Amino acid sequence: MYVNFWYPVCISTDLTDKPIHISMLKHDFVAFRDKNGKAAVLSDTCIHRGGALSGGKCKEDGTVQCPYHGWRFNTEGVVTRIPSLGINAKIPPRARVDSYPVQEKYGLVFAFLGDLPEAERPPIMPIDEYGTDGWRATVMSFDVDYNYERSIENGMDPAHNEYVHPTHGYSGERESEYKVHELEPSQVNPWGWGFMHTFDAPPLRHWLFRRARKVHGKLQAGSGTYGPNHMWTWIHLSEKFWMHQYMFEAPIEENKTRVFLVNMRNIFISKYDWLNRIYDKTVNKRNMMVAGQDIVVVNRLRPVLTPNSRTKELLMPHDKGVLHYRDKLDEFEGRGWKIDMDGVNAARAKGDVVYAIPSPARRQDKGWVLDPVPLVTPKQQMAQAAE
Ligand code: FES
Ligand SMILES: [Fe+2]
User: Fold this and answer.
1) Banded pLDDT at 359 (limits 50, 70, 90)
2) CATH code, residues 1-124+341-387
Protein backbone atom coordinates (compact mmCIF):
# COMPACT_ATOMS: atom_id res chain seq x y z
CA MET A 1 0.00 0.00 0.00
CA TYR A 2 1.19 3.49 -0.86
CA VAL A 3 0.81 6.96 0.59
CA ASN A 4 0.55 10.08 -1.60
CA PHE A 5 -2.35 9.05 -3.83
CA TRP A 6 -6.05 9.89 -3.95
CA TYR A 7 -8.23 7.21 -2.36
CA PRO A 8 -12.01 6.89 -2.75
CA VAL A 9 -13.73 7.39 0.60
CA CYS A 10 -17.43 6.95 -0.17
CA ILE A 11 -20.18 7.77 -2.63
CA SER A 12 -20.88 11.52 -2.33
CA THR A 13 -24.57 11.10 -1.57
CA ASP A 14 -23.75 8.75 1.33
CA LEU A 15 -21.88 11.47 3.22
CA THR A 16 -23.95 13.65 5.54
CA ASP A 17 -23.47 15.42 8.84
CA LYS A 18 -23.29 12.03 10.57
CA PRO A 19 -19.65 11.02 10.97
CA ILE A 20 -18.76 7.71 9.32
CA HIS A 21 -15.86 5.40 9.97
CA ILE A 22 -13.71 4.56 6.96
CA SER A 23 -10.87 2.07 6.87
CA MET A 24 -8.15 2.61 4.29
CA LEU A 25 -4.49 1.59 4.12
CA LYS A 26 -5.11 -0.31 7.38
CA HIS A 27 -5.79 3.01 9.16
CA ASP A 28 -8.95 4.53 10.59
CA PHE A 29 -10.51 7.73 9.27
CA VAL A 30 -13.61 9.73 10.01
CA ALA A 31 -15.53 11.42 7.20
CA PHE A 32 -18.30 14.00 7.64
CA ARG A 33 -19.77 17.18 6.19
CA ASP A 34 -19.65 20.49 7.99
CA LYS A 35 -22.62 22.86 8.14
CA ASN A 36 -21.87 24.20 4.64
CA GLY A 37 -21.83 20.69 3.21
CA LYS A 38 -18.06 20.68 2.83
CA ALA A 39 -16.66 17.14 3.08
CA ALA A 40 -13.86 16.44 5.55
CA VAL A 41 -11.68 13.40 6.13
CA LEU A 42 -9.60 13.25 9.33
CA SER A 43 -7.52 10.68 11.13
CA ASP A 44 -10.07 8.93 13.38
CA THR A 45 -7.96 8.61 16.50
CA CYS A 46 -8.53 11.34 19.05
CA ILE A 47 -5.18 12.62 20.27
CA HIS A 48 -6.48 13.07 23.83
CA ARG A 49 -6.79 9.45 24.88
CA GLY A 50 -7.57 7.58 21.69
CA GLY A 51 -11.35 7.87 21.26
CA ALA A 52 -12.77 7.10 17.82
CA LEU A 53 -14.06 10.38 16.39
CA SER A 54 -16.33 8.46 14.02
CA GLY A 55 -18.23 7.28 17.10
CA GLY A 56 -19.03 10.89 17.98
CA LYS A 57 -21.32 13.55 16.52
CA CYS A 58 -21.19 16.52 14.22
CA LYS A 59 -21.92 19.77 16.03
CA GLU A 60 -23.69 22.87 14.78
CA ASP A 61 -20.36 24.76 14.58
CA GLY A 62 -19.16 22.37 11.83
CA THR A 63 -16.91 20.30 14.09
CA VAL A 64 -16.91 16.62 14.95
CA GLN A 65 -17.05 15.87 18.63
CA CYS A 66 -15.15 12.99 20.24
CA PRO A 67 -17.56 10.68 22.07
CA TYR A 68 -15.17 10.18 25.02
CA HIS A 69 -14.62 13.67 26.55
CA GLY A 70 -16.24 15.91 23.98
CA TRP A 71 -13.22 17.58 22.34
CA ARG A 72 -14.27 19.24 19.10
CA PHE A 73 -12.26 19.00 15.86
CA ASN A 74 -12.86 21.27 12.88
CA THR A 75 -12.49 20.20 9.24
CA GLU A 76 -8.79 21.15 9.42
CA GLY A 77 -8.39 18.62 12.23
CA VAL A 78 -7.71 21.40 14.76
CA VAL A 79 -9.26 21.16 18.23
CA THR A 80 -11.54 24.14 18.84
CA ARG A 81 -12.83 23.15 22.24
CA ILE A 82 -11.74 21.11 25.27
CA PRO A 83 -14.85 21.17 27.45
CA SER A 84 -13.13 19.96 30.63
CA LEU A 85 -10.96 23.13 30.67
CA GLY A 86 -14.05 25.34 30.81
CA ILE A 87 -15.38 27.87 28.35
CA ASN A 88 -12.84 30.07 26.41
CA ALA A 89 -9.87 27.96 27.53
CA LYS A 90 -6.64 28.19 25.53
CA ILE A 91 -6.14 25.20 23.22
CA PRO A 92 -2.58 23.78 23.05
CA PRO A 93 -1.09 23.79 19.51
CA ARG A 94 -0.53 20.02 19.50
CA ALA A 95 -4.27 19.49 19.87
CA ARG A 96 -4.93 18.47 16.28
CA VAL A 97 -5.30 15.38 14.13
CA ASP A 98 -4.32 14.96 10.48
CA SER A 99 -6.84 16.36 8.03
CA TYR A 100 -6.59 15.24 4.41
CA PRO A 101 -7.22 17.17 1.20
CA VAL A 102 -10.63 16.21 -0.20
CA GLN A 103 -12.10 16.39 -3.70
CA GLU A 104 -15.60 15.44 -4.80
CA LYS A 105 -15.57 14.18 -8.37
CA TYR A 106 -17.52 11.70 -10.46
CA GLY A 107 -20.04 11.20 -7.63
CA LEU A 108 -17.33 10.14 -5.19
CA VAL A 109 -15.50 11.68 -2.25
CA PHE A 110 -11.73 11.28 -2.56
CA ALA A 111 -9.09 11.93 0.11
CA PHE A 112 -5.42 12.50 -0.60
CA LEU A 113 -3.67 10.23 1.88
CA GLY A 114 -0.22 11.70 2.09
CA ASP A 115 1.73 14.86 2.81
CA LEU A 116 2.71 16.09 -0.66
CA PRO A 117 2.02 19.75 -1.41
CA GLU A 118 -0.77 20.33 -3.95
CA ALA A 119 1.47 20.91 -6.98
CA GLU A 120 3.23 17.57 -6.54
CA ARG A 121 0.19 15.34 -6.02
CA PRO A 122 -0.54 12.62 -8.60
CA PRO A 123 -4.03 13.48 -9.91
CA ILE A 124 -7.25 11.51 -9.71
CA MET A 125 -7.65 9.43 -12.89
CA PRO A 126 -9.52 11.68 -15.32
CA ILE A 127 -12.88 10.67 -16.82
CA ASP A 128 -13.03 12.93 -19.86
CA GLU A 129 -16.53 11.91 -20.98
CA TYR A 130 -18.07 12.55 -17.53
CA GLY A 131 -20.78 15.18 -17.80
CA THR A 132 -20.53 15.42 -21.60
CA ASP A 133 -23.39 14.99 -24.07
CA GLY A 134 -24.21 11.45 -25.09
CA TRP A 135 -22.78 9.81 -21.99
CA ARG A 136 -24.48 8.68 -18.82
CA ALA A 137 -22.78 7.80 -15.53
CA THR A 138 -23.70 5.40 -12.76
CA VAL A 139 -21.73 4.77 -9.61
CA MET A 140 -21.66 1.78 -7.32
CA SER A 141 -19.36 0.15 -4.78
CA PHE A 142 -18.70 -3.36 -3.52
CA ASP A 143 -16.23 -5.05 -1.18
CA VAL A 144 -13.98 -7.97 -2.03
CA ASP A 145 -11.93 -10.17 0.27
CA TYR A 146 -8.63 -9.84 -1.49
CA ASN A 147 -5.76 -7.44 -1.96
CA TYR A 148 -6.36 -4.47 -4.25
CA GLU A 149 -3.25 -5.31 -6.31
CA ARG A 150 -4.75 -8.70 -7.14
CA SER A 151 -7.91 -6.89 -8.17
CA ILE A 152 -6.08 -4.41 -10.43
CA GLU A 153 -3.94 -7.14 -11.98
CA ASN A 154 -7.07 -9.09 -12.82
CA GLY A 155 -8.32 -6.08 -14.74
CA MET A 156 -4.98 -5.75 -16.55
CA ASP A 157 -5.15 -9.36 -17.76
CA PRO A 158 -6.68 -9.80 -21.24
CA ALA A 159 -6.38 -13.60 -21.24
CA HIS A 160 -8.91 -14.28 -18.49
CA ASN A 161 -11.93 -12.97 -20.39
CA GLU A 162 -12.20 -16.06 -22.56
CA TYR A 163 -12.43 -18.34 -19.52
CA VAL A 164 -14.00 -16.23 -16.81
CA HIS A 165 -16.63 -14.16 -18.62
CA PRO A 166 -19.06 -16.04 -20.88
CA THR A 167 -20.35 -12.67 -22.06
CA HIS A 168 -16.93 -11.69 -23.42
CA GLY A 169 -15.49 -15.05 -24.52
CA TYR A 170 -16.29 -18.63 -25.42
CA SER A 171 -15.29 -20.36 -22.17
CA GLY A 172 -12.52 -22.14 -24.07
CA GLU A 173 -14.90 -23.85 -26.48
CA ARG A 174 -13.29 -22.38 -29.56
CA GLU A 175 -9.74 -23.06 -28.46
CA SER A 176 -8.42 -23.70 -31.96
CA GLU A 177 -9.27 -20.12 -32.97
CA TYR A 178 -8.51 -18.44 -29.66
CA LYS A 179 -5.39 -16.35 -29.14
CA VAL A 180 -4.48 -13.16 -27.33
CA HIS A 181 -2.87 -10.87 -29.88
CA GLU A 182 -0.31 -8.12 -29.42
CA LEU A 183 -1.58 -5.56 -26.91
CA GLU A 184 -1.80 -2.04 -28.35
CA PRO A 185 -0.58 0.52 -25.81
CA SER A 186 -3.32 2.97 -24.89
CA GLN A 187 -3.64 5.93 -22.50
CA VAL A 188 -0.08 5.56 -21.28
CA ASN A 189 0.45 8.21 -18.62
CA PRO A 190 3.08 9.15 -16.03
CA TRP A 191 1.25 7.04 -13.43
CA GLY A 192 0.40 3.92 -15.41
CA TRP A 193 0.25 1.92 -18.63
CA GLY A 194 -2.74 0.64 -20.59
CA PHE A 195 -3.70 -1.36 -23.66
CA MET A 196 -6.52 -2.13 -26.06
CA HIS A 197 -7.10 -5.52 -27.68
CA THR A 198 -9.57 -7.02 -30.14
CA PHE A 199 -11.36 -10.12 -28.92
CA ASP A 200 -13.64 -12.54 -30.76
CA ALA A 201 -16.88 -12.37 -28.85
CA PRO A 202 -20.09 -14.39 -28.70
CA PRO A 203 -23.55 -12.95 -29.35
CA LEU A 204 -25.04 -11.17 -26.36
CA ARG A 205 -28.20 -12.77 -25.03
CA HIS A 206 -29.37 -10.34 -22.37
CA TRP A 207 -32.54 -8.46 -23.42
CA LEU A 208 -30.87 -5.08 -23.17
CA PHE A 209 -27.35 -5.89 -24.35
CA ARG A 210 -28.54 -7.84 -27.43
CA ARG A 211 -28.94 -4.46 -29.09
CA ALA A 212 -25.17 -4.02 -29.03
CA ARG A 213 -24.17 -7.39 -30.54
CA LYS A 214 -26.65 -9.99 -31.73
CA VAL A 215 -24.19 -12.22 -33.60
CA HIS A 216 -20.62 -13.43 -33.18
CA GLY A 217 -18.40 -10.43 -33.59
CA LYS A 218 -15.45 -8.41 -32.47
CA LEU A 219 -15.13 -6.77 -29.11
CA GLN A 220 -12.53 -4.10 -28.58
CA ALA A 221 -11.56 -3.81 -24.96
CA GLY A 222 -8.66 -2.86 -22.79
CA SER A 223 -7.54 -1.58 -19.43
CA GLY A 224 -4.94 0.62 -17.89
CA THR A 225 -3.82 1.90 -14.55
CA TYR A 226 -3.37 5.32 -13.03
CA GLY A 227 -1.45 5.18 -9.78
CA PRO A 228 -1.62 2.06 -7.62
CA ASN A 229 -5.40 2.00 -7.23
CA HIS A 230 -7.16 3.64 -10.19
CA MET A 231 -7.92 1.59 -13.30
CA TRP A 232 -9.96 2.10 -16.44
CA THR A 233 -11.56 -0.63 -18.54
CA TRP A 234 -13.05 0.27 -21.88
CA ILE A 235 -15.44 -2.19 -23.49
CA HIS A 236 -16.48 -1.35 -27.02
CA LEU A 237 -19.31 -3.83 -27.51
CA SER A 238 -19.51 -2.77 -31.14
CA GLU A 239 -18.24 0.18 -33.15
CA LYS A 240 -20.90 2.47 -31.73
CA PHE A 241 -21.83 1.02 -28.34
CA TRP A 242 -19.28 1.80 -25.69
CA MET A 243 -19.02 1.24 -21.96
CA HIS A 244 -16.16 2.91 -20.14
CA GLN A 245 -15.58 1.75 -16.61
CA TYR A 246 -13.44 3.56 -14.08
CA MET A 247 -12.47 1.71 -10.93
CA PHE A 248 -11.22 3.55 -7.88
CA GLU A 249 -10.08 1.07 -5.29
CA ALA A 250 -9.61 1.61 -1.57
CA PRO A 251 -7.31 -0.92 0.09
CA ILE A 252 -8.98 -1.52 3.46
CA GLU A 253 -6.32 -3.92 4.68
CA GLU A 254 -4.17 -6.62 3.07
CA ASN A 255 -7.09 -8.87 2.16
CA LYS A 256 -9.98 -6.45 1.92
CA THR A 257 -10.70 -3.92 -0.76
CA ARG A 258 -13.58 -1.55 -1.45
CA VAL A 259 -14.09 -1.02 -5.15
CA PHE A 260 -15.91 2.06 -6.46
CA LEU A 261 -17.01 1.71 -10.05
CA VAL A 262 -18.01 4.68 -12.17
CA ASN A 263 -19.63 3.28 -15.29
CA MET A 264 -19.95 5.55 -18.31
CA ARG A 265 -22.08 4.47 -21.26
CA ASN A 266 -23.07 5.98 -24.56
CA ILE A 267 -25.86 3.42 -25.02
CA PHE A 268 -29.18 2.83 -23.32
CA ILE A 269 -29.84 6.52 -22.80
CA SER A 270 -33.43 7.66 -23.17
CA LYS A 271 -35.16 11.03 -23.13
CA TYR A 272 -37.32 9.60 -20.33
CA ASP A 273 -35.85 9.67 -16.88
CA TRP A 274 -37.88 6.72 -15.62
CA LEU A 275 -36.45 4.60 -18.43
CA ASN A 276 -32.92 5.78 -17.73
CA ARG A 277 -33.35 4.66 -14.16
CA ILE A 278 -34.34 1.16 -15.34
CA TYR A 279 -31.33 1.12 -17.66
CA ASP A 280 -29.05 2.29 -14.82
CA LYS A 281 -30.24 -0.54 -12.59
CA THR A 282 -29.86 -3.11 -15.34
CA VAL A 283 -26.35 -1.95 -16.23
CA ASN A 284 -25.25 -1.95 -12.58
CA LYS A 285 -26.72 -5.40 -12.05
CA ARG A 286 -24.94 -6.64 -15.12
CA ASN A 287 -21.63 -5.11 -13.96
CA MET A 288 -22.05 -6.76 -10.58
CA MET A 289 -22.69 -10.11 -12.27
CA VAL A 290 -19.47 -9.76 -14.31
CA ALA A 291 -17.55 -8.64 -11.20
CA GLY A 292 -18.92 -11.72 -9.42
CA GLN A 293 -17.33 -13.94 -12.08
CA ASP A 294 -13.94 -12.35 -11.35
CA ILE A 295 -14.44 -12.52 -7.58
CA VAL A 296 -14.92 -16.31 -7.62
CA VAL A 297 -11.54 -16.81 -9.31
CA VAL A 298 -9.50 -14.06 -7.66
CA ASN A 299 -10.68 -15.14 -4.19
CA ARG A 300 -8.75 -18.35 -4.61
CA LEU A 301 -5.46 -17.05 -6.01
CA ARG A 302 -2.38 -18.11 -4.09
CA PRO A 303 -0.29 -16.67 -2.70
CA VAL A 304 -2.87 -14.30 -1.35
CA LEU A 305 -0.61 -11.31 -2.19
CA THR A 306 1.21 -10.98 -5.51
CA PRO A 307 4.56 -12.76 -5.17
CA ASN A 308 7.60 -10.64 -4.43
CA SER A 309 9.72 -12.41 -7.01
CA ARG A 310 8.86 -12.53 -10.71
CA THR A 311 10.38 -16.01 -10.93
CA LYS A 312 7.59 -17.44 -8.81
CA GLU A 313 5.04 -17.15 -11.61
CA LEU A 314 5.42 -18.19 -15.25
CA LEU A 315 4.35 -15.05 -17.06
CA MET A 316 3.56 -14.84 -20.79
CA PRO A 317 3.80 -11.89 -23.23
CA HIS A 318 0.12 -11.09 -22.69
CA ASP A 319 0.84 -10.61 -18.98
CA LYS A 320 2.68 -7.47 -20.00
CA GLY A 321 -0.01 -5.22 -18.49
CA VAL A 322 0.53 -6.84 -15.11
CA LEU A 323 4.29 -6.29 -15.41
CA HIS A 324 3.88 -2.64 -16.38
CA TYR A 325 1.70 -2.19 -13.29
CA ARG A 326 4.30 -3.85 -11.07
CA ASP A 327 7.01 -1.63 -12.58
CA LYS A 328 4.96 1.42 -11.60
CA LEU A 329 4.56 0.11 -8.06
CA ASP A 330 8.35 -0.30 -7.88
CA GLU A 331 8.67 3.28 -9.05
CA PHE A 332 6.30 4.46 -6.27
CA GLU A 333 8.34 2.47 -3.77
CA GLY A 334 11.48 4.16 -5.16
CA ARG A 335 9.89 7.52 -4.31
CA GLY A 336 9.62 6.34 -0.71
CA TRP A 337 5.80 6.07 -0.75
CA LYS A 338 5.38 2.40 0.16
CA ILE A 339 3.98 1.69 3.61
CA ASP A 340 6.02 -0.69 5.74
CA MET A 341 3.20 -3.13 6.47
CA ASP A 342 5.46 -5.28 8.65
CA GLY A 343 6.01 -2.23 10.84
CA VAL A 344 2.27 -1.45 10.90
CA ASN A 345 1.39 -5.05 11.76
CA ALA A 346 4.04 -5.31 14.47
CA ALA A 347 2.62 -2.20 16.15
CA ARG A 348 -0.90 -3.58 15.84
CA ALA A 349 0.07 -6.93 17.29
CA LYS A 350 1.70 -5.24 20.26
CA GLY A 351 -1.27 -2.93 20.52
CA ASP A 352 0.37 0.06 22.20
CA VAL A 353 1.07 2.29 19.18
CA VAL A 354 -1.25 3.80 16.60
CA TYR A 355 0.17 5.56 13.56
CA ALA A 356 -1.31 8.28 11.38
CA ILE A 357 -0.92 8.71 7.63
CA PRO A 358 0.90 12.09 7.54
CA SER A 359 -1.12 14.95 6.06
CA PRO A 360 0.30 17.98 4.19
CA ALA A 361 0.17 20.16 7.34
CA ARG A 362 2.99 18.07 8.80
CA ARG A 363 5.34 19.66 6.25
CA GLN A 364 4.89 23.04 7.97
CA ASP A 365 3.99 22.29 11.55
CA LYS A 366 5.89 20.18 14.02
CA GLY A 367 4.73 18.59 17.22
CA TRP A 368 2.18 15.97 16.23
CA VAL A 369 0.87 13.59 18.83
CA LEU A 370 0.77 10.44 16.67
CA ASP A 371 3.85 9.15 14.86
CA PRO A 372 3.68 8.95 11.07
CA VAL A 373 3.21 5.53 9.52
CA PRO A 374 6.55 3.78 8.82
CA LEU A 375 7.54 3.73 5.13
CA VAL A 376 9.79 1.32 3.28
CA THR A 377 13.23 2.83 2.69
CA PRO A 378 13.82 2.79 -1.08
CA LYS A 379 16.46 0.25 -2.17
CA GLN A 380 18.59 3.00 -3.70
CA GLN A 381 18.81 4.85 -0.39
CA MET A 382 19.63 1.65 1.44
CA ALA A 383 22.48 0.98 -1.00
CA GLN A 384 23.82 4.52 -0.57
CA ALA A 385 23.66 4.19 3.21
CA ALA A 386 25.61 0.91 3.02
CA GLU A 387 28.43 2.50 0.94
S1 FES B 1 -10.37 10.69 23.94
FE2 FES B 1 -11.29 12.13 22.68
S3 FES B 1 -11.86 13.70 23.99
FE4 FES B 1 -10.84 12.32 25.25
FE1 LIG C 1 -12.74 -9.90 -15.44
Assistant:
1) very high
2) 2.102.10.10
